[in-house]
Amino acid sequence: MTGDISPPVAASIPVVEGNEELRKHQNLLPPFSKVVSHFGTSGLSVALATGVTHPLDVVKVRLQMQHVGQRGPLIGMTGIFVQLMKNEGFRSLYLGLTPALTRSVLYGGLRLGLYEPTKVSFDWAFGSTNVLVKIASGAFAGAFSTALTNPVEVVKVRLQMNPNAVPIAEVRDIVSKEGIGALWKGVGPAMVRAAALTASQLATYDETKRILVKRTSLEEGFHLHLCSSVVAGVVSTLITAPIDMIKTRLMLQQGSESTRIYRNGFHCGYKVVRKEGPLALYKGGFAIFARLGPQTMITFILCEKLRSLAGLHTM
Prior knowledge:
This is Mitochondrial carrier domain superfamily. This protein is an all-alpha fold. The chain is built from 11 helices and no strands. It is globular and about 55 Å long. The N and C termini lie far apart (57 Å). The relative contact order is 0.13.
């Protein structure tokens, strides 16, 4: 009979589902040119923001290295700035700029560039893009990017504390005296900080944009990007300042394991709180916000603009 020969209706369902699955897989693999544009716009926006705010990063590192292992009166941000200008000159404000820009392009491109693909992958796997998915996507993107680029960060921090150092010579010096593993000093806290920073920064920016579009008259454009990035800058500073301070202390440690003050990130945090007080975890906190706030705003506003010019959708 004809009815017996023709395939049942239910048999067509797996084929349709298979096509849908294939289409989803294809959507997860964009053209190579789009991938380059995606990572390029991210890296360029972070690099430009870093160039503008780099002097504040130098001041922040100097603030964090005050009275290591002991209590004492702290010099403020203005005092450190005046001290730098008086003792080391204007150029000291741009110590470590070369590795900072190199890291910005690599780390920034990966950090921002991986966020959306990770979020899309989570959406495909779990069928959700709620705030927890955004936090998880940001944490993964930040931690992975930092694990790859930590050596550049170590060199940058060392140069910021030594006005006479040269990048290539500093790398040779670190490797010859402390071993190649020294280039990954502080990688644990750095990954935690990057995960916390990227998760708080990108998830906050993403979620703030969504809420503002839904509950206010703001539409996609400069004012929406500005408001969202300000909120993201404040939240990310509050969360990452203590981790940033611990990361800096570990990266600047020199010598053998037996002569080091801190064994790891937890030990560093414990000793800082015990010997310098809990507020010591926020040493350079205002400098971090003064740098991270504008950097967050510049990064997101520039990235949104560059993405628009490159024909990519908004973040």
